[in-house]
Amino acid sequence: MLSSPVYQCSSGHVTCASCHDHTSGHTLCSYCLDTGCTRSLAVEEFLYGISFSCRNQQYGCDAFLLHHQMREHERSCHHEPCFCPVPLCGFAGQTYELESHLATLHRWDVVGFRYGESFEAPVHSPAVFRCDDYGELFHILASREGYGTALSMICIRPDNACKEEFTYELKVPAGGQHRLQMQSTVWNTSLRYGIGEGSDVFLLVPDKLPGNGSGSVVEVCINKAAAAGATSD
């Protein structure tokens, strides 16, 4: 049977469990307010046999499955997309397609890196950072905040991807042989709903930091965070 029950009143109106639970008294029909709604096993059995297309059909998935099978499929569907960070663009596709899209259409720089190794990242020119070993894509969001530049690192990956945790270190010259070093977490997002909370957590690079020059490039090191419960020998 369906995981969510279906209810029916004496007039034949069918109500889903969500609407039924929000109706005053829980025994009223949400359509005609008739009393005495009962669970409709016949309708549930009918709905149980209907097949659905995957939500990623427009991105190339041809799966057509029963409701309970589709929910499981979509948790690991390889066609689950990422979305372009350029406002109003609307492009969606797999990670490698997004990388090609940003490089060819929007002329973004693609900077390769490896986890645990420092690399130079442009701040004010658009760029995407690709892990050479695993293919994950990262991007720095830069915005003005008070007397400095707020930098937020995001990992652009599908919604159903394993939410592996990342941290990143940011290093900028601070005069002489000194450097300012900061660390924060990386926000995982498909950008389905835009940048959103990805810019809420940021590191602030002061404008008048000695030795920082134009501040157009920063040194970055992205690390995989230790898995929860992991212990070191």
Question: What would you note in describing this structure?
Answer:
The protein has helices spanning 17-22, 41-48, 67-74, 95-104, and strands spanning 6-8, 14-16, 38-39, 51-53, 64-66, 82-83, 92-93, 109-113, 119-122, 127-131, 137-145, 148-156, 166-173, 179-185, 187-189, 203-206, 217-224. The chain is 14% helix and 34% strand. The protein folds into 2 domains: 6-74, no CATH class; 82-224, Apoptosis, Tumor Necrosis Factor Receptor Associated Protein 2, Chain A (Sandwich), CATH 2.60.210. With 233 residues, the chain is an alpha+beta fold. Strands 8, 10, 11, 12, 15 and 16 form a 6-stranded mixed beta sheet that branches. A 4-stranded antiparallel beta sheet has the order 9-17-13-14, with no helix packed on it. It is elongated. Residues 227-233 have low confidence and may be disordered.
List the helices and strands and how they pair.
Layout: E1 6-8, E2 14-16, H1 17-22, E3 38-39, H2 41-48, E4 51-53, E5 64-66, H3 67-74, E6 82-83, E7 92-93, H4 95-104, E8 109-113, E9 119-122, E10 127-131, E11 137-145, E12 148-156, E13 166-173, E14 179-185, E15 187-189, E16 203-206, E17 217-224
Parallel strand pairs: 8-10, 12-15
Antiparallel strand pairs: 1-2, 1-3, 4-5, 6-7, 9-17, 10-11, 11-12, 12-16, 13-14, 13-17
